[in-house]
């Protein structure tokens, strides 16, 4: 965001102050229009969100769907009060006790933020009190994404109380609304849920504060005018909220069959006192529209994320060996050095030392002690971290390390010093999850400490290239010793703001360190975190069959560039299931590939295979990182086949993955129609990670038109059969 703001100097249009009758305010990208109108009552209303309309001016004459004295129109920022009867985006109690807010248009301004990025700010004012609401819409032209948030300013002298403070409202009119959203918990993140919306309210939300995406993910897809989900056809609106805390997205279908989507910070237990002169800035809602089905909507979001939404998008995310499932807490320097050797031997690019390396008086030899005491456990690693990191660098590998800086064990020197730093409600039980408590990041002293953990860890060695930032519990019995009694309800929001303040400082000092967001696996997968993190740990569930579903859901919204995917041992430590090594590699290779096992337990043949799969990954990893994703077959379809492909932007190369999720019968042939290829080009097709291909087209040159029309039909029928196919235009 900062980079964009730097360009903001180029202010290229400021529209007239003070409304002079009806007017159109248009926010556009290459293919999408978000059209608003200031009506005769000076209200800001939404007329359209969808395909581009070149000339919206005639819409000034558009007749409302409703009788003039029946409630409010489709407000861009519906408030509680006045005639509004829909879910308010903004609800407050004014200083004098008045519960009504009625916003009128005052002015708007359009700024060119960067090449292809335009920001429109619309200022609304309450008709009675000195409250200003600025709606901020940023259009990313090439990616067809528009982000929206609002800023609430108390221009009075006395404080007011905010109850609801959503980022944006999007009214949509269609005959049917099919909602896809993503629920899940530890080790089963981003499961797809789908429902046809009926009249009334449907909400997705979390109230966990931390590990917020271990309930629902703050994202959705909405297929319009249909009861069936389609990857390639039809109109789809997709959205995500950039907030790493409690969120809520409401889908309300009213008595006029109008759907209003209202998303933002969850108002749950979060009443916020806004002092005179204070401004409350909500997080961005990220919205896109595609007429090319869900696939088109995903590609828009991925393009946006890779240009604007994730930290350091052009940095190559290294392949890696992580020590966790291979060693857990049980290692010596010798164990780690052997792992480094093995990682190098298999062609991986980095070794990551996970949990268990720290603690002095309370060494971290299991989950019961040590969190908070971020100094090297010299009993375990007498030569320190640098010796391992240096060794890795000597072998041509990068080095990464695990921290969990927001957490504290009771058995820690930190707890002895700062018991007041723990999130707690005085007089109530401080419940533990995984034997740990949460530090209160609303407290600036705790923010300093958490920044210090990162900073001092980085000082352990000049060879640290990567940090895995974990967070293994959520909030219970919320309360802060730091916040005054009357402001306890600020806790949920101030925690997240404190978290971001720390990350700002870290990124100012360490812009190039690759930092992974982990929260017991995929508990912090959101575009708020990804502003600061390079990638996420998609799930603690490393079992390949489960991963097909988890990665399918995650990559609907988040690009494969950021989704860590590791090959682990069998039987799998989470599920007990055993899958072939090739299947495990073929699944992990569709994300940011890594391994997480003890290589010493692998046979020679397994290591040979790993070496080969890691090498073949290097042929197409740039497609995973920056190509267009096409989902060909859903793992949720009953025929038990999942397939996806990534195509380079210039359509000259592609990689196709296919996975058999059940026995599909020898008599049934797989047919996969490919997408995104140039019909008029010819592609050399090569199957990877096999000695003997089970596809007749392997080694041939086939037309793009043939691959799109007829597709290909590899011989995949047994459970865990899988294939990776590399296509290169001739
Ligand atoms: C969490 C993470 C794991 C691992 C452990 C270490 O569960 O998700 O990947 O880092 O913590 O304790």
Can you describe this structure?
- The protein is of the alpha+beta class.
- It has three domains: 308 residues, alpha-galactosidase from lactobacil brevis (Beta-galactosidase, Chain A, domain 5); 218 residues, TIM Barrel (Alpha-Beta Barrel), CATH 3.20.20; 100 residues, Immunoglobulin-like (Sandwich).
- It contains twelve helices and 36 strands.
- The strands form six sheets. Strands 1, 6, 7, 8, 9, 11, 12, 14, 15, 19 and 20 form an eleven-stranded antiparallel β-sheet that branches.
- A hairpin with a 2-residue loop joins strand 11 and strand 12.
- The longest helix has 23 residues.
- The protein is globular and about 80 Å long.
- It binds alpha-D-galactopyranose.
- The site of alpha-D-galactopyranose has 11 residues, from loops.
The geometry reads as globular
What is the count of helical runs? 12
* Biggest sheet architecture: 11 strands, antiparallel
Q: Helix content range of the residues, please?
A: 10-25%
Bound molecules: alpha-D-galactopyranose
CATH architecture of the largest domain: Distorted Sandwich
Query: How much of the polypeptide forms β-strand, as a percent range?
Result: 25-35%
- Say which CATH homologous superfamily of the largest domain is assigned: alpha-galactosidase from lactobacil brevis
Overall average pLDDT? 95
Number of separate strands: 36
Number of domains: 3
Radius of gyration: 26 Å
The CATH topology of the largest domain comes to: Beta-galactosidase, Chain A, domain 5
Low-confidence stretches: 1-19
CATH class of the largest domain: Mainly Beta
Cα distance, first to last residue?
A: 40 Å
């Amino acid at each position: 965001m900062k980079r964009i703001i730097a360009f903001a100097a180029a202010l290229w249009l400021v529209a007239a102050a003070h409304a002079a009758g009806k007017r159109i305010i248009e926010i556009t990208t290459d293919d999408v229009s978000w059209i608003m109108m200031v009506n005769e009552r000076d209200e800001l209303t939404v007329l359209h969100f969808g395909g581009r309309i070149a000339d919206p001016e005639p819409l000034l004459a558009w007749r409302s769907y409703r009788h003039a004295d029946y409630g409010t129109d489709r407000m861009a920022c519906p408030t509680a009060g006045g005639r509004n009867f829909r879910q308010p985006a903004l609800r407050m109690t004014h200083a004098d006790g008045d519960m009504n807010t009625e916003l009128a248009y005052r002015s708007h301004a359009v700024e060119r933020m960067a090449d292809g990025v335009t920001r429109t700010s619309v200022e609304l004012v309450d008709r009675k009190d000195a409250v200003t609401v600025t709606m901020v819409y940023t259009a990313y032209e090439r990616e067809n994404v528009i982000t929206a948030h609002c800023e609430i300013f108390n221009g009075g002298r006395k404080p007011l109380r905010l109850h609801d403070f959503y980022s944006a409202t999007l009214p949509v009119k269609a005959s049917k609304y099919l909602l896809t959203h993503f629920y899940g918990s530890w080790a089963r993140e981003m499961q797809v849920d789908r429902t046809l919306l009926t009249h009334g309210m449907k909400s997705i939300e979390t109230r966990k504060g931390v590990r917020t995406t271990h309930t629902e993910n703050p994202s959705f897809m909405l297929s319009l005018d249909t009861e069936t989900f389609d990857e390639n056809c039809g109109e789809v609106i997709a959205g995500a909220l950039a907030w790493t805390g409690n969120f809520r997205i409401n889908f309300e279908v009213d008595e006029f069959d109008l759907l209003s989507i209202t998303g933002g910070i969850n108002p749950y237990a979060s009443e916020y006192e806004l002092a005179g002169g204070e401004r409350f800035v909500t997080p961005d809602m990220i919205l896109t529209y595609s007429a090319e089905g869900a696939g088109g909507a995903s590609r828009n979001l991925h393009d946006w994320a890779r240009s604007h939404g994730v930290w350091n998008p052009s940095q190559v995310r290294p392949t890696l060996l992580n020590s966790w499932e291979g060693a857990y807490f049980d290692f010596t320097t010798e164990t780690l050095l052997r792992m480094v050797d093995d990682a190098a031997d298999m062609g991986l690019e980095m070794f990551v030392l996970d949990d268990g390396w720290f603690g002095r008086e309370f060494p971290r030899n299991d989950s019961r002690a040590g969190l908070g005491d971020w100094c090297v456990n010299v009993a375990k690693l007498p030569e320190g971290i640098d010796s391992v990191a240096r060794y890795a660098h000597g072998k041509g590998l990068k080095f990464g390390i695990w921290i969990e800086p927001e957490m504290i064990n009771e058995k820690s020197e930190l707890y002895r010093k700062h018991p007041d730093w723990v999130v707690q409600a005085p007089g109530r039980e401080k419940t533990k999850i995984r034997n740990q408590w949460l530090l209160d990041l609303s407290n600036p002293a705790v923010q300093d400490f958490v920044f210090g953990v990162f900073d001092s860890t980085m000082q352990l060695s000049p060879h640290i290239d990567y940090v895995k930032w974990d967070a293994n519990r959520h909030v219970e019995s919320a309360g802060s010793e730091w916040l005054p009694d009357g402001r306890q309800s600020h806790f949920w929001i101030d925690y997240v703001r404190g978290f971001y303040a720390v990350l700002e400082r870290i990124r100012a000092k360490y812009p190039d360190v690759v930092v992974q967001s982990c929260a017991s696996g995929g508990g912090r997968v959101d575009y708020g975190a990804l502003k600061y993190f390079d990638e996420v740990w998609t799930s603690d569930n490393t079992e390949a069959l489960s991963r097909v579903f988890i990665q399918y859901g995650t990559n609907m919204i988040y690009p494969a560039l950021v989704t860590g995917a590791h090959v682990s041992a069998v039987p799998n430590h989470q599920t007990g299931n055993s899958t072939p090594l090739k299947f495990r590699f073929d699944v992990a290779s569709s994300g940011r590939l890594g391994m997480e096992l003890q290589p010493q337990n692998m046979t020679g043949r397994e290591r040979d295979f790993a070496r080969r799969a890691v090498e073949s990954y290097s042929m197409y990893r740039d497609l995973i990182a920056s190509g267009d994703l096409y989902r060909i077959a859903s793992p949720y379809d009953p025929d038990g086949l999942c397939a996806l492909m990534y195509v380079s932007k210039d359509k000259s190369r592609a990689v196709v993955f296919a996975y058999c999720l059940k026995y599909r019968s020898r008599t049934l042939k797989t047919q996969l129609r490919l997408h995104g290829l140039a019909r008029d080009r010819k592609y050399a097709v090569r199957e990877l990670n096999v000695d003997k291909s089970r596809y007749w087209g392997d080694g041939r040159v086939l037309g793009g038109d043939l691959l799109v029309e007829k597709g290909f039909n590899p011989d995949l029928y047994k459970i865990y059969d899988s294939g990776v196919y590399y296509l290169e235009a001739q």
